[in-house]
Design brief:
By secondary structure, the chain is an alpha/beta fold. The chain folds into two domains: about 150 residues, Creatine Amidinohydrolase, Chain A, domain 1 (3-Layer(aba) Sandwich); about 230 residues, Creatine Amidinohydrolase. Helix content is about 35%, strand content about 20%. The protein has twelve helices and 17 strands. The chain has a six-stranded mixed sheet with strand order 4-3-2-1-5-6, with helices on both faces. The protein has a four-stranded mixed sheet with strand order 7-8-9-17, with helices on one face. It has a three-stranded antiparallel sheet with strand order 12-15-16. A hairpin with an 8-residue loop joins strand 8 and strand 9. Helix 11 runs antiparallel to helix 12. The termini are far apart.
């Protein structure tokens, strides 16, 4: 049973990681897989706590549906693996030397497996070599099985997302002082990037500063365009915290008076975003959140300007399951974390987006972002 108290006090432990491995094995068995093969990336970190370097040398978790998981690692990476939570888990580590063929080791550990899955972020080169090493096995993506597990956040993960949300909120609180006519988007973006790391993130994953007509491009990033008086500026920012969990939040700022038409559109967007957040409930389909959000935009006369899905899951990746889109009938469950980010984009003129990260708890949807969602007007 997950409640807000659990969310605020939980932490990751070796026992939690062991449970994740067991759940992944059960998911593999339910999917008819003999084994799941996991390379460096978010799936490996989720299952073992090990943030392995993505090298040309093969590091691979061999996770059988039944039996003991084994981590294959280059000998020079074994100390790093054992210094990670892999050591406290007691996970066996099989080293290989520079003159060895690690794919032969994969074949040996996989045994007579006829159906295996590789993680969705595995390099094509490695996936192809695994296929060559297991010629009698059907090889497919582990995305559906592992994505489902990662979509349901445990208490430690939700606490991590709360910390990430607070950190990016702190950055948004400082954005208005960076905005003034004559500065370029790029200069503002550099300052925001510095604030993201100062707020506790270890990496800056993206900075969008989209002024005036650039706001009509949802993923504009930055340019040398100079900020002008009386125009809106879309700021969408995010980074990764030391524990690997991500932040992602969008707010809109105005340099002076942006006009009655824009303010009217923004009021509709503000309502749509609030309705979308409230629409999250256990048992509803992910598509229902999209539908509720989109309905407000359509009723407000700007539905044609809302050109993307309502949201995406977030955790060890900025974009992961579940996706809040009209075709996704996946039922919502306690522990799902996702963005609610409707927007409007009028080509050649302006745009806007409001984005919060929301966690579905037993008490309903809970936003981890609390920066003001109203249009923030800055003196020009």
């Amino acid at each position: 049973m997950l409640n807000v108290t659990d969310i605020e006090t939980a932490h990751v432990s070796a026992a939690v990681l062991a449970t994740r491995l067991e759940r992944a094995q059960a998911a593999a068995a339910a999917a008819g897989l003999d084994a799941v093969l996991v390379s460096p990336g978010p799936d490996l970190r989720y299952l073992t706590g090990y943030q392995a370097l993505p090298l040309e040398r093969l590091t691979l978790l061999v996770l059988p549906a039944a039996g003991e998981p084994v981590l294959i690692a280059p000998r020079l990476e074994v100390p790093a693996a054992l210094a990670s939570p892999v050591g406290s888990l007691g996970l066996p580590v099989r080293p290989w030397d520079e003159t060895d063929d690690p794919y032969a080791l994969v074949a040996d550990l996989a045994g007579s497996a006829t159906s295996v899955a590789v993680d969705a972020r595995m390099w094509a080169e490695k996936a192809l070599r695994i296929m060559a090493a297991l010629p009698s096995a059907q090889v497919r993506s582990a995305g559906p099985a592992l994505g489902r597990l990662r979509a349901i956040k445990d208490a430690a993960e939700i606490a991590a997302l709360q910390r990430a949300g607070a950190a990016i909120d702190a950055v948004h609180a400082q954005v208005p002082e960076l905005l003034r006519p004559g500065r370029t988007e790029r200069a503002v973006g550099r300052d925001i990037a510095d604030l993201i790391t100062a707020a506790g993130h270890v990496t800056v994953d993206f900075v969008i500063v989209a002024s005036g007509p650039n706001g009509a491009s949802p993923h504009h990033e930055v340019s040398d365009r100079v900020l002008q008086p009386n125009e809106p500026i879309v700021v969408d920012i995010g980074g990764t915290m030391p524990d690997g969990y991500c932040s992602d939040s969008t707010r809109v700022y105005a340099l002076g008076d942006v006009g009655a038409e824009y303010r009217e559109y923004y009021e509709t967007l503000y309502e749509a975003q609030a309705v979308g957040v409230a629409a999250g409930r256990v048992g509803a389909a992910c598509a229902d959140v999209d539908a509720a959000t989109r309905r407000v935009m359509v009723d407000g006369g700007i539905g044609d300007y809302f050109i993307h899905r309502t949201g995406h899951g977030i955790g060890l990746e900025t974009h992961e399951d579940p996706y809040i889109v009209e075709t996704n009938r996946t039922p919502m469950e306690v522990g799902m974390a996702y963005s609610v980010e409707p927007g409007f984009y009028v080509e050649g003129r302006f745009g806007a987006r409001i984005e919060d990260i929301v966690v579905l708890t037993e008490d309903g949807p809970m936003s981890v972002n609390h920066a003001p969602r109203e249009l923030v007007v800055v003196d020009a």
